[in-house]
Amino acid sequence: MTGFSLTGCTARDRLEIADFQDSLWRGGTAANLAYMDWKYGANPYLDDRYVTLAREGGELVGMVGVFGACWEVAGERFTLPCLTDTVVAPRYQGSPLFRILTDEVVARLRADGVPWLLDFGDQGAGPAMLMNGWRPIGPWGQAVLKRAKPLVADRPWHELAAVRGAGSGLVVRPLEAVDAEAMAGLVDRLPAGTGLRPVRDAGYFRWRAANPLARYFHLVAGDDPIEGYLIGHRSGVDTDDGGTPTTIVDCEATSDAVFADLVTAAVEQLPGAEVLMWVRDLPAARIAALRARGAELDEPTGLFTRDMYLPNLVIRATGADVPGALSSIHGPDMWNLSGVSGRAWR
Hints:
The chain is 26% helix and 29% strand. The protein is of the alpha+beta class.
């Protein structure tokens, strides 16, 4: 396939990108521009240097976004870019254009010494990606709570009543805004576990909560210091009775009882017809707590056409030198994905 020019993203491209991406972002011009500024401009780990555009005769026909995520293992931190916002013009869907764009990103990363590229989406392109050097870390299961009718909020989230947890005795309360310092402090107090995990510091929590195309719902248990938190996510361009699920993207707690109390409050208060939570790195007791509150487990079957709808991560080595701490991350057991969800960055 010839005739494409591949470029980076400049200020002159902003309005065109906002329109081109509307099939995915669905925010309209002003909100899409704000989202682009948030995701690629305000990101605390990486700017927009690896966003790659494809043009044909001057027309924008393809884009892959790349944003920064910070990960830690064995006391070291690394910025590992994530592929996102992959859109090609309808006439080129199913063509090699997506591969051409991602190969260009990989080449740029390799030249800058960045060893890995991550992708939490693009499940439909999975077979082609695996043939082009990507390695799967998943898929994995999720807990799914389906309601007979959608829960539609009748008041702002922070005006919902606080409740006392039946298991822990702690007060569980909704927040008007993210308490980034308290949440980061709890993460620091808890055991880090093994494997590569996302960095959740105050800067990360503040950045994520500022997503202009998302609604976040924050719960905390206890006070000074908190003993647990839960973060729910819902698309900011969908109504409470719309078709997209509400996702619990992060939940940390000092005990199983605190976790269960947070989940109970979330199940009772989060809007939407369906509530999801990844279970990949949850202890058995916490999975049991989700099931006890009505969630069913949706687990991999080994059939691609069925499992393509489950959460997944694929990674690709760029060919740059790999630090010793990252040398084994191509194995699924080397990852700790509690505290992150693909929806956490949308």
